[in-house]
């Protein structure tokens, strides 16, 4: 099974990132978590991304706030798919991080989820792995079915 990398720019992002970690745990995915910053530890961030494919990563989730260049800096050095989570950690309520993460120049894609959208980042990473992993694909289908069932139960309750 390919691993999923989770990188955050600061330990202050961990509260949000835990949402992604919990989701990956629920699916039994293999993952690694690191604190690497595009600005404060550029060498380590670059080394991680340069070696990501050879180290068995199938997707990389990058969470950062403020001038959130982490996902783009990681994507610059690898063709392993990169998913960016803009973190709400400034007086601009995450809009700064959203724009910094999503506005990539042509040629270097980053799949950006919502501000603090850690759960969807994890699910998207799993969907990427599921392209070539039937077990993960089945778990994702089961999860969707459970979600639908829960909503329909609530629907029945209000209809009664
Ligand atoms: C970003 O700046 C981090 O990703 C974090 O969201 C924000 C604040 O970092 P700290 O000053 O709390 O370390 O680089």
From TrEMBL:
Catalysed transformations (reactions): 5-carboxyamino-1-(5-phospho-D-ribosyl)imidazole + H(+) = 5-amino-1-(5-phospho-D-ribosyl)imidazole-4-carboxylate
Binding of substrate, residues: 10, 13, 40
UniProt-listed Enzyme Commission number(s): 5.4.99.18
Boundaries of every PurE domain copy: 2-151
UniProt pathway annotation: Purine metabolism; IMP biosynthesis via de novo pathway; 5-amino-1-(5-phospho-D-ribosyl)imidazole-4-carboxylate from 5-amino-1-(5-phospho-D-ribosyl)imidazole (N5-CAIR route): step 2/2
Entries under Pfam families matching the protein: AIRC (PF00731)
Listed InterPro entries: PurE_ClassI, PurE_dom, PurE_prokaryotes
Transmembrane regions: none
GO terms (BP aspect): 'de novo' IMP biosynthetic process
Signal peptide coordinates: none
UniProt-recorded Gene Ontology molecular function terms: 5-(carboxyamino)imidazole ribonucleotide mutase activity; lyase activity
Job description of the protein: Catalyzes the conversion of N5-carboxyaminoimidazole ribonucleotide (N5-CAIR) to 4-carboxy-5-aminoimidazole ribonucleotide (CAIR).
Family the entry assigns: Belongs to the AIR carboxylase family. Class I subfamily.
HAMAP family noted in UniProt: PurE_classI
Name listed for the protein in its UniProt record: N5-carboxyaminoimidazole ribonucleotide mutase
Organism, as annotated: Qingrenia yutianensis
Organismal lineage: Bacteria, Bacillati, Bacillota, Clostridia, Eubacteriales
Record gene name: purE
């Amino acid at each position: 099974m390919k691993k999923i990398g989770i990188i955050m720019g600061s330990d202050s992002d961990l509260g949000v990132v835990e949402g992604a970690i919990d989701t990956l745990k629920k699916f039994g995915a293999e993952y690694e978590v690191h604190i690497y910053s595009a600005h404060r530890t550029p060498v380590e961030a670059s080394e991680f991304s340069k070696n990501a494919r050879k180290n068995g990563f199938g997707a990389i989730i990058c969470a950062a706030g403020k001038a959130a260049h982490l996902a783009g800096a990681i994507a610059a050095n690898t063709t392993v798919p990169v998913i960016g989570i803009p973190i709400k950690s400034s007086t601009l309520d995450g809009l700064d991080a959203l724009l910094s993460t999503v506005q990539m120049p042509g040629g270097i894609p980053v799949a950006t989820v919502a501000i603090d959208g850690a759960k969807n980042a994890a699910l998207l990473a799993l969907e990427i792995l599921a392209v070539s992993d039937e077990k993960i694909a089945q778990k994702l289908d089961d999860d969707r079915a459970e979600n639908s069932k829960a909503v329909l139960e609530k629907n029945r309750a209000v209809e009664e």
